[in-house]
Structures are given as structure tokens and as C-alpha cells.
Amino acid sequence: MNLTDELRRLAELHQQGHLNAQEFTDAKRKLLAESHVNAPASVNEKRAHLSAQIKIEEKCYQSSRWSSGNLIFPDRLTLASDGMLFRKGALFGSDEELINYRSVASFRITNRIFLANITIETTGGSQPIFMNGLWKSEAKMIQDTIRAFQRNGE
Hints:
Layout: H1 3-15, H2 21-37, H3 43-53, E1 59-62, E2 76-80, E3 83-89, E4 94-99, E5 104-111, E6 115-122, E7 129-135, H4 136-153
Antiparallel strand pairs: 1-2, 2-3, 3-4, 5-6, 6-7
Helix pairs in contact: 1-2
């Protein structure tokens, strides 16, 4: 029996004199409270629940030292459940950027003979992330992970 039918049944019982005004009000309040608890979740609640289910072990990908610009301070990309962290090392300090998977606008892989380059463009207004010197299989795994998070986050 749905909520409307139950409310109609309560109203009939009240009109017939089987329930007084206080009993009718209490029963109606209880019925509405139960229906609110059992109501389907909103879209945002469903997304939050779904993203809470998607958990991955942190995985760090590092550029090969054989690629240009990575001999001393190789670039690192860490994929985790809450987003990806890109770290570009330097002699004094480093630049780090945390990016949510939903902020990824495009992902491009450029394959070379042994290694691959990736470019990640975001909607957050920052410059695109360019990481060269990844193994081809690693670049594909990064792309698959980002696609899985974006697909399940919708």
C-alpha cells in the first residue's frame, strides 16, 4: 500500500469516529516520518554513496629517467580514491597539484617507441599537466583508472 492510500485510510477512520483528532495527528505524523526515511535518495546522495564505494589503493607512477627532463627529478603522478596528485620536482622545492577526477576534461596519450607521453587537461583553470617518459602500459592504466572514476561518478 502506498502513502496516499494509507493517508486516505487514516482520514476515513477519523471521519468514521474510530480515531480522535490526536490519534489521527499522531498516526499521520508517524506515517509521514516512515515514508520520509524510506524515500529514495536524492541524486547527490546516490553519487556520494557510489563514490564512497569506489576505493582504490594509492598507486604512484614515475617518469622514466631515460626521458628528457627527468634525469634528476622525475615527474610523479599518484592516483588515489580522492583524486590524483601530480608532482613536478625541482632543485629547490616542488610543484604539486591535486586534481579531482571529475575535473578532468580530456586525457591524451602520445605513444613513442617504448615510452608514452600523457597530457591531462582540466576544467579547473590550471595549465594542462604534461608528463613524459611513462611506459605505455602505465599510461593506459592511468587512462583506464580516470575513465572508471568518471563513469562511476556520474
